[in-house]
Amino acid sequence: MHTRGMPDRTDYAALIAGHTVIIEMINSGDAGLPVLNQLLQVAQPALGAAGMAFVEFAPSGGRVIAATGAAEWTLGRPLPASDPITSCLLTGPRVRHVRTDRCTNQLAAELAERGLRRMVVSRAEIAGHTVGSLHALYLAGDDEASTDQHAVVGYLGSCIAHMYGYQSGLPVRGDGPVVAALADGLAVVDDERDLFVAVTSHELRTPVTVIKGYADTLTDHWESLSETDRRQAARVIGQRANDLARLLDRLLASAAEAWPGDGPPAPLDLAETLRLAVADLPADLRRRATLQLPAELPRAVGHRQSLGTVLTELATNAAKYSPPGSPIEISAEADDQTVCFRVSDRGIGVRPEHVERAFDRFWQGDSGDRRRYPGTGLGLYLVRRIVEQQNGWVFLRPRTGGGTVAEVRLPRR
User: Fold this and answer.
1) What are the CA-CA distances from residue 190 to residues 61, 147, 175, 193, 384 (Å)?
2) What is the pLDDT of residues 119-129, one digit of tens each?
3) Nearest residue to 5 (alpha-carbon basis) of 148, 140, 146
4) Where's the Histidine kinase domain (predicted)?
5) Which of 47, 175, 286, 351 has the fewest CB atoms within 10 Å, counting from its CB?
């Protein structure tokens, strides 16, 4: 790996030119993640960094919501509240230089193994409340960060805090307490009980109505129906019963503290796990799915059975938001620390400001999406819970050319 120390000076001309573009984006109505991502893309070369990342904090911990360059693989990575690096980021000087090879947590170890052994970190704070932390990461070297780099990273952290203060598309996580902590005192109240009743009553009623209708038809008109009609009615009843069973599984799992039936994560053949999971997909999904696997894929650490559930949920979500019959592409690859698989579609895509909120329980885009794309909003919520219980992480991103890519990363054995 190419190694270099930190540069002697910051490219202020590039920084100012890039910042002008960001201001023009804001003046044109852009907000939230598009602006945050552009800020990181501008800052990385100006600071001579190998990668940039921003972690958004909530009471449950942090999550990487934007990343560029050599840090892009961390996108979606959680930082639990109990993680030592989380405590480290939330205390001490607001701007500082950190050596990842001297930190004790897993993420820091992975950064160090990739050669990213130094970073300049700035907290984004509003009236003493930390909403996130900005990270400029550098490849191995003995150089200390310059005063200029500390100042620029601190300034950019303050700029991001300012964006949070105006709440223009930020925070991107929808759990409310992040917003409640902001300086203007805005509190978000999420009445999950009423939402649960409204959503589930609708989703339960639909398959039950269809099953009852077809069952009544068979009972009342058996003799007058052809064999083909009877088989079709039985087929629909079976499909809707499967939908109902799957919905009940989701509801029960969403209320459970841990995914039932799984022991500690164990080494597994991810390629074989994906082949079996694709073979078990419902027929309509299986016909649309294409599986592309490398000749050799290292073993991952996880739960074979629940990964099948993850793939089913991601494929179902891809089919739901894409044209009928369009391909659903499933692929896999590995790096030195992780093994990942992706589910890609060619559908309506995901807006940057929704890539995190999509994993919230019961959330389904705007109200128009709920009418056009019915569902409980539990699928991606369960996917994230299952994957993170296996020490992995999952995130969404727009697909080049249109559509959405869902990527799951698991520890490599």
Assistant:
1) 19, 44, 8, 9, 20
2) 999 999 887 78
3) 140
4) 199-413
5) 286
